Amino acid sequence: MGPVGSRQPPEAPPGREPPQRSPDRRRWALAIILVSLAALCAIIGWAQWYAVHVNVPKYQHRAPPLP
């Protein structure tokens, strides 16, 4: 423990130190989350494009003529 009145945080007792997270691990986790989010957005965008440009014309072609 630091001297009285010091701004140093108290030290943990031996053997009970909290696990330190490395910045590299946090960066990897953030990168994986961002890549997953980008992939999800890309899949949704492709599905929307496919629905409008492929499915709609296919069903409009089969539709009976309007009276």
Q: Nutshell version of this structure?
A:
The protein is an all-alpha fold and 67 residues long. It has one helix at 23-62.
Description:
With 67 residues, this protein is an all-alpha fold. It has a domain at 22-67. The protein is built from one helix and no strands. The protein has one helix spanning 23-62.
Number of distinct beta strands: 0
- Derived from helix and strand composition plus strand pairing, the structural class reads mainly alpha
Question: Which residues form runs of ≥5 with pLDDT under 50?
Answer: none
- Gyration radius (Cα, Å) is 29 Å
The H-and-E topology, N to C, reads as H
Blueprint of the fold:
Elements: H1 23-62
Keywords:
mainly alpha, 1 helix, rod-shaped
